[in-house]
Amino acid sequence: xxxxxxxxxxxxxxxxxxxxxxxxxxxxxxxxxxxxxxxxxxxxxxxxxxxxxxxxxxxxxxxxxxxxxxxxxxxxxxxxxxxxxxxxxxxxxxxxxxxxxxxxxxxxxxxxxxxxxxxxxxxxxxxxxxxxxxxxxxxxxxxxxxxxxxxxxxxxxxxxxxxxxxxxxxxxxxxxxxxxxxxxxxxxxxxxxxxxxxxxxxxxxxxxxxxxxxxxxxxxxxxxxxxxxxxxxxxxxxxxxxxxxxxxxxxxxxxxxxxxxxxxxxxxxxxxxxxxxxxxxxxxxxxxxxxxxxxxxxxxxxxxxxxxxxxxxxxxxxxxxxxxxxxxxxxxxxxxxxxxxxxxxxxxxxxxxxxxxxxxxxxxxxxxxxxxxxxxxxxxxxxxxxxxxxxxxxxxxxxxxxxxxxxxxxxxxxxxxxxxxxxxxxxxxxxxxxxxxxxxxxxxxxxxxxxxxxxxxxxxxxxxxxxxxxxxxxxxxxxxxxxxxxxxxxxxxxxxxxxxxxxxxxxxxxxxxxxxxxxxxxxxxxxxx
Length: 529
Ligand SMILES: [Zn+2]
Description:
15 helices; protease; zinc ion binding; hydrolase
């Protein structure tokens, strides 16, 4: 499902409208060929071995990869490769189960890596294939597994400090149809706060139980079209840290330090990089939209477990097999750099994350209910579409470095609400939040929020017409019968409760209408302050 203005649709020529509409298992974006003067900017990366199926055994690549109608590695080839590596390597454990399948019951295999010894470890989760038409993402995770299998000295050193869960293909249905979305045509990377799709819930439960210190999601971006009719996007890879203000400041700072070091590693190989951005154009003026803090996307959501998170995006959508070696190399250099930083700076990284988690649990600081991006000026490197030359272009940047804070609120001691909202409790639990069941009636004073205004958006996003509210707070006595829910905020994953339960937030239950409210209503989740 896509974001669409009905008024735009009405004015759009038929062929464009057709291309923008969902059709079951048929949502491919056609291949676009880079002009020779553009393509020359993307030679193979020297001095790197890519030990993944497409490079180890090119005969496994179907002919459809070259015409842009499939990726290079069919599901059965991926499964056989993972099983082969796991059989022959003492550190690898292969996981595949009926409990973790796609919407159409394809397997979603993953591999855990551990040396089995006791001791402090950083847990790192790395995934690819969230979007089914971004093949360098899952290929890079396979190449990372190949590197672990082939380089025993490096693997042994890493696994003294780290445990990993590597999940190469999040969206096995999307890869099968070579489309971005899940089989249901729902964008799986917009589902991590509302948790509509069962596949999202399964994967989120696994993420919550693994509880990573570091989370990496490897994607590709669309860089083929000319921006402002004359510039082609030049970056081999975009990397962003988490910007959510409800993540402890030391974790956010560590996250950004990692990004700077990743950029160094990428630059040393002669590759071009930048923070993640999309572009929009008005007249000739280019605006770049950088990473925001919305926890609807998996990598941003994962940070709310007080976790260092990364989005990596190689230039790849609609390129089919063009520059594939360079794309996979760029993503592998980034994931390898993240692991190497975690290992080489282990004491600092471990202490910072664990210390910040403890500080977050005990914090009485205000929570951030709503923020928005700030606007600054920047210079970004593009490729001149006509000459092929690299050039620096002045742009307007919307970014969260830092965001503007719009609403803060005292951190409640707890949230309390009726068992009528068992579905809300279930969402919180999937996100790893401990939700207690009241063993006796709760009788006490709470902060109750009354809806001062409620506005329905005039567009749908992923099937939902969102509601934006303002509220006023009053103290009142309330009785919530036993069997109701109590969410203590003195816990590591409390930030998930903040973004789901504070009604003004842009991933709240009110935003998504899972708790429907109108002006004048009392919001039924109470704050115990
Ligand atoms: Zn993607």
